[in-house]
């Protein structure tokens, strides 16, 4: 394997960081012991910039390229996104909940196999003679307001950053 660039990030399929590398887990490093690495990373990923700086933290995150995506201006070092999300009404597509009703008189006390009927007691009518309600009848709220998982299909690998290597020159 050729010598890496300092601060180069690679994915590995094993469970340790090789010699001269560290996991991309947000670890805080002292500037005075890692001046060349600090010159490349600065405080982009954390630290106080006086005595410490941080390595990138890719734990539970997908790497993305900086730039503009979906109207967002993504700056190097930004953390964004969420593992779960609770939909709000504005995010649910427009749709209707049709109600099946009958013009027949009601004669059944339970809903199974029956529809809403003309009179109010009991509330249900046999399924024969069905028609769609014209919107005057509705259905109550549904759902429990819980968040749902928001992760893309993924495979966990380790990301490592080179602590030693060639200092990259600008082209």
Automatic annotation (TrEMBL):
Ranges where the Phage tail collar domain occurs? 8-63
Q: Which Gene3D superfamilies match?
A: Phage tail collar domain
A Pfam family name for this chain? Collar
Ranges in coiled-coil conformation: none
**Name of protein:** Phage tail protein
- The record lists the organism as Alloalcanivorax gelatiniphagus
């Amino acid at each position: 394997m050729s010598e890496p660039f300092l601060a180069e990030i690679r994915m590995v399929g094993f469970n340790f960081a090789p010699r001269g590398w560290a996991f991309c887990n947000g670890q805080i490093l002292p500037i005075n012991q890692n001046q060349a690495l600090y010159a490349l990373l600065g405080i982009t990923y954390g630290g106080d910039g006086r005595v410490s700086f941080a390595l990138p933290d890719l734990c539970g995150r997908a790497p993305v390229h900086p730039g503009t995506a979906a109207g967002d201006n993504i700056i190097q070092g930004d953390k964004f996104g969420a593992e779960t999300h609770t939909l709000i009404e504005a995010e649910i597509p427009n749709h209707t909940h049709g109600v099946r009703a009958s013009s027949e008189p009601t004669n059944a006390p339970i809903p199974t196999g029956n529809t809403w009927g003309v009179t109010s007691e009991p509330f249900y009518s046999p399924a024969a003679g069905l028609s769609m309600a014209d919107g005057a009848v509705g259905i109550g709220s549904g759902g429990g307001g819980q968040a749902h998982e928001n992760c893309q299909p993924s495979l966990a690998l380790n990301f490592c950053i080179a602590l030693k290597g060639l200092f990259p020159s600008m082209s």
